[in-house]
Specification:
The complex is a heterodimer of chains A (about 425) and B (about 170).
Chain A: E1 2-3, H1 5-29, E2 34-44, H2 46-53, E3 59-68, E4 72-79, H3 80-90, H4 101-126, E5 130-132, E6 136-140, H5 149-153, E7 160-169, E8 176-182, H6 184-194, E9 200-201, H7 202-227, E10 231-242, E11 254-264, E12 268-274, H8 276-287, H9 297-322, E13 326-328, E14 332-337, H10 338-350, E15 355-365, E16 371-378, H11 380-388, H12 392-401, H13 403-409, H14 415-423
Antiparallel strand pairs in A: 1-9, 2-7, 2-10, 3-4, 3-5, 3-6, 4-8, 7-8, 10-15, 11-12, 11-13, 11-14, 12-16, 15-16
Chain B: E1 17-19, E2 25-28, E3 33-39, E4 43-49, E5 55-60, H1 77-90, E6 98-104, H2 118-132, E7 137-142, E8 148-153, E9 158-163, E10 166-171
Parallel strand pairs in B: 1-3, 6-7
Antiparallel strand pairs in B: 2-5, 3-8, 4-5, 4-6, 8-9, 9-10
The chains are: A alpha+beta (about 425), B alpha+beta (about 170).
Keywords (chain A): Chemotaxis, Hydrolase
Organism (chain A): Haloferax marinisediminis
InterPro entries (chain A): CheC, CheC-like_sf, CheZ_family_phosphatases
């Protein structure tokens, strides 16, 4: 199956509009003033979906099975508190658990109305018949409460496609997620009808992601070695998203960020985002506590150098797999609102594309509050061409020989380099 | 069970605050507060009719419609200004009493691949387009290296600019 960017764009817009319709219906039925926060079309390992639903927090909502030209599962889930609030807005007597018959009926009816709008939108755009089963009330804090093993089995193991929308309300803490998880065979048929010969081969994207996963794991291991903090890869997924929507995926709070551009066979941008506490902790672990407790010039250079090492590791791994050369710029530092650090990169890409594949990785400390988000946003045309060159055998060879590890270790973090950078005497690469 | 009037699907709930996301714009005569978060190189264009209190805010990404892909009017500085002016007049604004304020257009990162002065270019095209259409700019907070957030109260015309680097609120 080939993923054509135009077809993906159509599906993405459809999901975004469907979520908007769901939010409007929620507004009509309750006192909540809600809007779609973000819609994602993402490709992820099915175990990630399981982990996300299995996060220990109780969720309440409906599950709907779809059949026909689009088959799969649609889940509309409120978190526990939001479910109580919604049920309270719809019916008069709601106790602490959203389990009494009235509350349950209210939640099912609301979710069903929201979901119908979503599915109708899909059917209209696809000009297809989609049969929808009666909604089933679901409640629980484990993945099994929402998706059964057969449904997991129908997803692509390496790179399941998920449409996910978050709805937020003005002035109220509100948790609502909508997942549309198509069966792989079903979505493959749809892409065949929407796509001509051009596009990204699904299996190659899956292979590339497998390699990127390996690279992310290596970065986490090396970060552990450099800092002494045990790190692990928390999230790995490929988002297909409108460039306009990327700022909404970033926390709206001050973040320490380091950006790189990369070019060669594959061009684009790489962005590292740390919350200020994590940035301080990273500096303290590598070059010691800063005298002022903040991020002065020396500490900023340390963050830049650490990010530089991580960038080399990631991009060397990609270059090895693609049998290509990928150069990257010197690091650019900013400490600013999340959306503000993303928008220059979006401006840079917007002249040539509307959508982007965003390789989204979160590396977190195993036993403390420390994490780093890494966004890689390749140029869309380059990505298509690069994956076209990708040889599946090379992925296997790369994975079995750990080609990128040698390259990575050659760029171990060196505190002396930070001193040199701070003194303005270090020049590693010409800026692109 | 309570009963509800669903209205039309397109019907939006009235709200006091409205977020204007990247490439979005909104025109209102309802006195809403329009908010654009985290402007980096993007430029927010606020238009307000001092008489009718019709207001508008765009969160623009690129300078001119010919410079990018996609048909969203709010994405481009020139198209957003033209579209908002037209819709404001349709909402009852008097063209001659509309004034403009500009926020954003910073250079957050020094990356050569981004080109120099991307944010400045957005702000400069906004000035050119507003001058061409005879809309006066009464205030602006543009340039620099910091992101900005705009809150524009269209009931009073008060526009607040905040940054991550200071607790001070700049009022334009």
């Amino acid at each position: 199956m080939k993923l054509n960017v135009n077809a993906l764009g159509t599906f993405y817009e459809m999901a975004r509009e469907g979520a908007g319709l769901a939010a409007t219906r929620l507004n009509s039925m309750s006192e909540f003033e809600s809007r779609v926060k973000v819609t994602r079309l993402h490709f992820t390992h099915r175990s990630e979906i399981r982990n996300e639903l299995d996060d220990g927090s109780e969720k309440v909502g409906i599950r709907v099975s779809m059949d026909g030209e689009l088959s799969g599962t649609s889940l509309l889930l409120f978190d526990h508190e939001s479910a109580l609030s919604v049920a309270g807005a719809l019916v008069d007597d709601v106790d602490d658990e959203p389990t009494n018959e009235l509350a349950t009926s209210a939640i099912v009816e609301l979710c069903h109305i929201m979901n119908s709008g979503f599915v109708d939108g899909w059917a209209d755009v696809l000009q297809a018949e989609i049969d929808v089963d009666a909604p089933e009330y679901v409640i629980g804090d484990t993945a099994g409460a929402f998706i059964d093993e057969d449904e997991f089995g129908n997803m692509h193991e390496e790179l399941a496609l998920v449409f996910q929308s978050q709805i937020e309300t003005t002035g109220t803490e509100f948790g609502f997620e909508h997942y549309l998880i198509p069966e792989h065979e079903s979505i493959a048929r749809l892409f065949e009808t929407q796509t001509d010969d051009e596009g990204i081969e699904y299996e190659k994207l899956a292979g590339f992601d497998q390699m990127a996963q390996h690279g992310a794991t290596r970065v986490a291991e090396n970060l552990s070695r450099m800092t002494g903090i045990e790190m692990d890869v928390d999230i790995r997924r490929i988002n297909f998203i409108s460039l306009d929507a990327i700022p909404e995926t970033v926390p709206n709070e001050p973040l320490v960020s380091v950006a790189f551009s990369f070019s060669g066979t594959l061009g684009g941008y790489l962005l590292f985002l740390f919350d200020p506490e994590s940035a301080n902790e990273l500096v303290a672990a590598t070059v010691g506590d800063s005298p002022g407790g903040g991020l002065g010039a020396f500490e900023q250079d340390a963050i830049k150098e650490l990010s530089n090492v991580m960038t080399s590791g990631l991009l060397d791994g990609w270059a090895n797999m693609l049998d290509a050369t990928i150069d990257h710029s010197t690091p650019a530092y900013s400490h600013d609102m999340g959306a503000a650090v993303v928008d220059p990169l979006i401006v840079g890409l917007s002249e040539v594309q509307e959508f982007a594949f965003v390789f989204d990785t979160r590396i977190h400390a195993v036993d403390r509050e420390f994490d780093v988000d890494i966004y890689a946003i390749p140029d869309e045309t380059d990505l298509e061409a690069a994956l076209d060159r990708l040889d599946a055998r090379r992925i296997d060879e790369s994975l079995s020989h750990d080609v990128e590890e040698t390259e990575f270790e050659a760029r171990e973090f060196d505190a002396d380099l930070v001193e040199e950078i701070a003194a303005g005497t270090f020049e590693e690469v010409e800026e692109l | 069970m309570k009963t509800f009037d669903f209205g039309t699907d397109e019907e939006e709930a009235t709200r006091e605050e409205r977020l204007v996301g990247v490439s979005g714009y909104h025109v209102t005569s309802e006195g809403e507060t329009l908010i654009a978060y985290g402007l980096g190189a993007c430029v927010a264009i606020a238009l307000w009719d001092t008489d009718s209190k019709v207001g508008a805010l765009a969160h623009t990404l690129l300078p001119r419609q010919e410079s990018g892909l996609g048909a969203s009017s709010g994405k481009y500085v020139d198209a957003a200004i033209q579209t908002m002016l037209r819709e404001m007049v349709e909402e009852g604004a008097g063209y001659s009493s509309i004034e403009a304020r500009l926020v954003g257009g910073a250079d957050i990162f020094e990356l050569k691949a981004l080109g120099k002065g991307v944010g400045k270019k957005n702000a400069s095209v906004a000035r050119e387009e507003l001058a061409r259409l005879d809309v006066p700019i009464v205030a602006e907070s543009t340039g620099g290296e910091h992101g900005r957030t705009v809150e524009f109260d269209t009931a009073t015309g008060r526009l607040e600019v905040t940054t991550a680097h200071s607790d001070d609120v700049e009022v334009l």
